[in-house]
Amino acid sequence: MKSIGRILAILFVSIFLFTQHISASSVPDKVTEKRKIIIQVNGRYCDIPKDLGEPYLDKETESTMVPIRYIVEMLNCEIEFLPEATNGKNGFCITNEDITVKMNIGDKNACRKILDKEENIILNASANLCEGRSYVPLRFISEALNFDVCWERDEAQFADYINIALCEKKQENVQHLVSQSEPKKNVKEVQGVQYEEFQINHRVIFGRYLREEELKPVLEGWFSYRMNNGLPKPKTCDTMKAYANKKAMIAGINFNEKGILTHDALDGEKCETFENLYLRPKNHPQDPITAWKKSPEHNKIMLYQDYAIDRAAVAGFEFIGNNNKVYQVYTLNFMPDF
What is the average pLDDT across 280-293? Predict the structure, then answer.
């Protein structure tokens, strides 16, 4: 899994310099009625400064359009603005490690290159200029750079909630493109089970993510416990699940290195989430819910009452410890609706 918090040199060229060859247009006439668009990237709310523009929903394509400069920065990717092409259109090149995406203003054709494999993509909505700023379709640019997008509409609040997180695995079409180029992962076998090698910031662990059917009793146990105490059932979300998966893996790495469970932030990123961790040897009879109930601090988190729970997930990671024993670490993560 790619590291979300890697330090990249973000290469920006002034929007003014980029747009001085093109007369900027106003916001398109085909914009939908004003809706509140709330975007989270890797668990962090995006408060887009007004001077960089604001996201809007295109009525014709139903595409959420966002200022490219800000969203690329939030995704920790690199951008290079390209000079005017022979067709008279300006463009840009966005890079996320081994993935490169090229687009031109006003053109529904984009090009994505993954390692040495290249493909052309026809877009539903093209990049454009609005009030002097470059905008791109949020879903396309996120998924093309290997991020997962979770979208929900709240008609009561007249708002769209969009969550973006680094994909646990490459999209199927991406995986197909690089399958011939990617080296095979190292594996270790313990008691007939094979565990893949995971690396993050040069830290290595052999393990596997617990399947949904393995996690279902924990998630349902938490839901039942809350509802039996007169509390509402939280909403689960794929974005929070990706975040919780990575937290579980990092907890396993920390346990192997330090001998204790730690609530480290992901790659130094600050995220307004609450979390329970639980570690046990594989096949240990005590389940996470029972363990968390016995701890006043963890029990308080399970019964969180101060605010509604906006997004939630339970994840688990099974890994080979330094003593060659197999452990399972569970994590319960949620984000309050402050």
Answer: 94
